[in-house]
Predict the structure.
Amino acid sequence: MLKTVVVFVCGALIGGLVVWKLPALGQAAVKDQAKTETAKVDLTALNNDVARLKSITPSNSHIMEDVSFHYSNLWFAGQKKNWPLAMFYYNESRNHIRWLLAKSPTTKTPEGEVVNLQGIFDGIDTSSLATLKKSIEDKKIDEFTPAYKLTLESCYACHKSAGRPYLRPMIPTVPPQSIINYSPDASWPS
Ligand code: HEC
C-alpha cells in the first residue's frame, strides 16, 4: 500500500515538473533560434562594416608621409634645442611607424617577397630609436644629431628590405610646416 502511494506521488511530481518546465524549455528553444538569427544578421552587417572600414583605412604610403612629417619636424625642434617639442615629434614619429605595423605587419617587395616589417622595427626600436630618445631626454644636441642620422639609416634599412631602395631619406633642409614655432624662447602667444 505504502509502496503504491510513493510511486503515485513520485509519478505526480515528475508529471507536474514536466508540465511546468516544458513551456519554459520551448521558450528557451525559440529564444535560441532568435539569437542565432540575430547573430546571422549581425554577421552580415559586421562583414559590411569591416569591408567599409578597410576601404577607408589610410594607405601605407599615407601613414609613412605622416612619419616623414613628424620626423622632419623633429630635426628642427632638436636643432633649436626645444626638447619638449622634440619629444613630442619623436613620439609621433614612432607611433606612426607602429600604426603602419598595426595595419600591415608584413609587406611585399615588388618581386612579391613577403617582408616582416614588425621584425625590422623591433630591431630599430631597441637600437637607433632608443638612442635617439635618450639624447632628447638628456637634452644633448651633440648626441641628438648623430642619433637622428643613425635613425635615418634605420629608416632606409627598412625601405631597402621592403624592396624600395629608391626611398632614400636625408636630413631635411626646409621645415615641413611654419605654424608651430620651433623656438623654445618664443613668447607669443603667451
Ligand atoms: C618598418 C619599416 C619602415 C620603417 C622603420 C620606416 N619606413 Fe618609411 N616606408 C616603409 C614602407 C613599407 C614604405 C612604402 C609604403 C607604400 O607606399 O606602400 C615606406 C615609405 C616611406 C616614404 C614614402 C611615402 C610616400 O608614399 O610618399 C617616406 C617619406 C618614408 N617612408 C619615410 C620614413 C622615415 C623618415 C622613416 C624613419 C623615421 C621611415 N620611413 C621608417 C617602411 C618603413
Remarks:
- The first strand starts at residue 106 and ends at 108.
- The beta strands are 106-108, 114-116.
- The CA atoms of residues 10 and 16 lie 10 Å apart.
- The chain has six helices and two strands.
